[in-house]
Write a sequence for this structure.
């Protein structure tokens, strides 16, 4: 395809503003699929993505559009994830395109994620076409939203396109804008091959599939390619495009987006952002890559049944095949046995991986409290990164500790601003900026990430009745007065429950966990003491009184089926119990203990 007939674009939007619905409409209009194949949103193809209505992995599809100018264009659509945890995946999708459709729900207006995405698109030098969606809704206020886009986002919105992705209204308007307003890609077909490695994943039949954007040269079937970062060479077995099903071709030229498959064993050998070149006629320079993703939240995952350890290892390995941003390493806990310390891009990423392990791999797991990555400066002059509270050195060995901060943007209707500011202040936040967009406030805060992983999203949603939108970016490290709080059950430390907090919050959180455990640990035949301590100093304590009677005693001689039910229930509960000395702690106690209120 000549470059002048190619358009590469992403769709960026705040979650729920209609990105996937629009993508489906574009695919349908361009005739990629039958009505029946369209019944489910095509691009969100993982179960969890569909259920939660979010996109995790960027997907791509090649469309063929006969435009009003009489020419048929190739439109490559790269879907982007809409959640803040996956901002990194957004940036690499954008790197493969020349333009973006900025979808804004005309009944909601600009939200935090709209801004975050649009700034990334501007950084990627994209031409941006604003699209006002959900124009069919009575609450739609396209004129106001137009103004908002100009004022807040700072891009012209006069020729924003009004559509309804749901009813299909003016989808042609979007397609025409792509053709007339986005620049075609540039590149030289005769130059040495330079292709950007955008993404890779594992396919059970084909092995590793690599998503590429060719910048210069041609990427041909059967040719020998070289990864410029490490010099590894592979023979290309298949080249093709997603339309949206995989369609093999002979080659991909400049400006084209497609896949290759080259008998590569693991995605770990495919560095996202790497440049692929021809081994016989290599390019002299790699393309500008993009920053690697680093996990910012860590937690321990332990099998409830110790026999599942091998299965856990295999399952984590399989997940990692498709998700290079997910990290894991072996960990041993005195309380929980053998497990893995796992690193994630954020809390949602953590939740998704945990859910997949439970659902797809049938694993029963205990997860420890999420921790951020601290920097410890020891008195002996050495420095280390710490992402497991259990590994925190003794206080006497520590010179200072630094913690990661974020810069958060929160957009919220005026009437909920008060409680939102209170929440940020309670979490040690520092206000950077506060401005108004009509009746909506936009607050910019610096916050310690440590305070955000403790249920900040949930609190924000609840104090704003769900109206606040939130986005953040990492914003450096700062020294802080942090302590490790240990939780002891009958004087035995439960390493999995220890956590790091700012000294000012230590007592409140310690007390809250002890109080929760008191309610969650079933009474036993003896008294149980629950304590929170910093070093040797106890800062909170609770006592669970002893149990006097056997639980099943009252069932003896009674209704036999009721008794069996009770025993079954206990058996079910057993699986989810962990033994601490003489004390059994149900898994629910761990999970609940990690939530704060
Ligand atoms: P995404 O999170 O940006 O991918 O949003 P979705 O495409 O999943 O859409 C979120 C919700 O908005 C879904 O319930 C859609 O049916 C609905 N929706 C999308 N576009 C429109 C539209 O044009 N009009 C109306 N009324 N609803 C829409
Ligand atoms: Mg979606």
């Amino acid at each position: 395809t000549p470059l002048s007939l190619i358009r590469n674009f992403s769709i960026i939007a705040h979650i729920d503003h209609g990105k996937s619905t629009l993508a489906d409409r574009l695919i349908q209009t361009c005739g990629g699929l039958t009505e029946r194949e369209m019944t489910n949103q095509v691009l969100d193809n993982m179960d969890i993505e569909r259920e939660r209505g979010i996109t995790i992995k960027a997907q791509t599809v090649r469309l063929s559009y006969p435009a009003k100018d009489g020419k048929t264009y190739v439109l490559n659509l790269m879907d982007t994830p809409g959640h803040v945890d996956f901002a990194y995946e957004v940036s690499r999708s954008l790197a493969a395109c020349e333009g973006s459709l900025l979808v804004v729900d005309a009944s909601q207006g600009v939200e935090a994620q709209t801004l975050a995405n649009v700034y990334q698109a501007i950084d990627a030098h994209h031409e941006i076409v604003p699209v006002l969606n959900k124009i069919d809704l009575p609450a739609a206020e396209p004129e106001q939203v137009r103004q908002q886009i100009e004022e807040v986002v700072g891009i012209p919105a006069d020729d924003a396109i009004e559509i309804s992705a749901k009813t299909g209204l003016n989808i042609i308007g979007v397609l025409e804008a792509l053709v007339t307003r986005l620049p075609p890609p540039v590149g030289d077909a005769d130059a040495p091959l330079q292709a950007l490695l955008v993404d890779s994943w594992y396919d059970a039949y084909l092995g590793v599939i690599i998503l590429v954007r060719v910048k210069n040269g041609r990427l041909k079937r059967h040719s020998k390619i070289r990864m410029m970062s490490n010099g590894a060479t592979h023979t290309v077995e298949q080249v093709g495009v997603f339309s949206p099903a995989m369609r093999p071709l002979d080659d991909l030229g400049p400006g084209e987006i497609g896949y290759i498959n080259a008998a590569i064993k693991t995605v770990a050998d495919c560095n996202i952002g790497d440049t692929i070149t021809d081994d016989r006629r290599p390019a002299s320079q790699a393309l500008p890559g993009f920053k690697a993703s680093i996990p910012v939240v860590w937690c321990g995952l332990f099998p409830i049944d110790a026999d599942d350890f091998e299965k856990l290892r295999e399952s984590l390995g399989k997940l990692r095949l498709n998700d290079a941003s997910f990290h894991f390493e072996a960990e041993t806990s005195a309380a929980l046995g053998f497990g893995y310390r796992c690193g994630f891009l954020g809390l949602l990423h953590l939740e998704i991986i945990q859910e997949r392990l439970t659902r797809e791999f049938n694993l029963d797991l205990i997860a420890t409290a999420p921790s951020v990555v601290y920097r410890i400066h020891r008195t002996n002059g050495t420095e280390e990164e710490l992402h497991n509270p259990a590994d925190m050195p003794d206080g006497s060995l520590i010179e200072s500790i630094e913690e990661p901060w974020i810069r958060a943007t929160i957009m919220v209707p005026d009437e909920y601003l008060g409680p939102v500011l209170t929440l940020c202040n309670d979490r040690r936040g520092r206000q950077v900026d506060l401005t108004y967009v009509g009746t909506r406030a936009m607050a910019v805060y610096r916050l310690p990430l440590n305070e955000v992983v403790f249920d900040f999203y949930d609190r924000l949603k609840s104090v704003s009745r769900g109206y606040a939108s939130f986005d953040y970016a990492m914003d450096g490290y700062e020294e802080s007065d942090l302590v490790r709080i240990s939780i002891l059950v009958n004087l035995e430390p439960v390493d999995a429950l220890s956590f790091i907090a700012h000294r000012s919050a230590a007592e409140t959180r310690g007390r809250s966990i002890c109080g929760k455990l008191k309610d969650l640990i079933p009474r036993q035949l003896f008294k149980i003491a629950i304590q929170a301590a910093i070093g040797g100093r106890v800062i909170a304590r609770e006592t669970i009184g002893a149990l006097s009677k056997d639980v099943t005693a009252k069932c003896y001689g009674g209704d036999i089926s009721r008794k069996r039910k009770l025993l079954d229930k206990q058996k079910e509960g057993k699986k989810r119990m962990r033994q601490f000395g003489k004390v059994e702690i149900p898994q629910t106690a761990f999970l609940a203990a990690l939530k704060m209120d």
Remarks:
- The first strand starts at residue 6 and ends at 13.
- The longest helix spans residues 503-520.
- Confidence is low (pLDDT under 50) at residues 553-558.
